[in-house]
Amino acid sequence: MTETRTAAELDEEAAVRRSLEDYYRDGEPPWDTGVTPPELVALVEGPGALTPGRALELGCGTGTNAVYLARHGWRVVAVDFVHRAVQQAREKAGAAGAAGADVTVLCGDATRLDELDVSGPYDLFFDLSCFCVIPAHRRDAYAAGLTRRAAPGARFLMFGYGPEVFEDPISGVTADELRSRFAGWELTDVTPGTNPFPTFWFTLHRTADGAA
Ligand SMILES: C[S@@+](CC[C@H](N)C(=O)[O-])C[C@H]1O[C@@H](n2cnc3c(N)ncnc32)[C@H](O)[C@@H]1O
């Protein structure tokens, strides 16, 4: 299907992408800590840990968490649209792959998954600050892409900045927005992050084809 986008929408997409590319070009972006957040560790290793299956990470950056998941038995596909980040993620994935971990890193747009080799279905989706920087007019496409690829009962763990943390074009995310954009999913948990500005961990369950 042909996409129709206004000039303003195209400008906004380009501005977001440029600002993210600049972060990676200028060195190590502030978020690239190399540390897997405890919220993901709890899901993978904690009491009631998920059974490893197929995972899709959106906006994987340099691949720390994709590799973490793969090292814990998940078959992982990770997507980011900044080439420099993808290169670094592939280097980490290569080292992990040599040790038996199953992780594939793709360069592409998380709101245009049909253009990538990511058919799924996936049991787990992980997004650490990607959705919250996506322009509003692309967010329904992002949600539809995940919904089409979700296994029954799939889990989605997302971390996002609240609105107004950054000046435009970085726009943030709210629980109400997720409830309205993710049809067929239930938002089962919202936990504030520990940052000095508003951040949230959101958990969604795919409900239309399976129980939450
Ligand atoms: C704040 S960074 C976080 C990166 C990584 N999740 C981490 O925590 O280290 C957001 C990431 O999402 C990626 N991103 C943003 N919009 C995207 C899109 N539409 N498609 C693919 N990647 C995107 C950016 O390139 C960037 O790597």
TrEMBL record:
- Which is a Pfam family this sequence falls into? TPMT
The Swiss-Prot or TrEMBL record annotates one GO molecular function as:
S-adenosylmethionine-dependent methyltransferase activity
Query: What GO biological process terms are annotated to this protein in UniProt?
Result: methylation
Asked whether the UniProt record includes Cytoplasm among its keywords, one would answer: no
Keyword Transferase listed: yes
Q: Which Gene3D superfamilies match?
A: Vaccinia Virus protein VP39
Keywords noted in UniProt:
Methyltransferase, S-adenosyl-L-methionine, Transferase
Q: What is this protein called?
A: Methyltransferase domain-containing protein
Instruction: Give the organism, scientific name.
Output: Streptomyces xinghaiensis
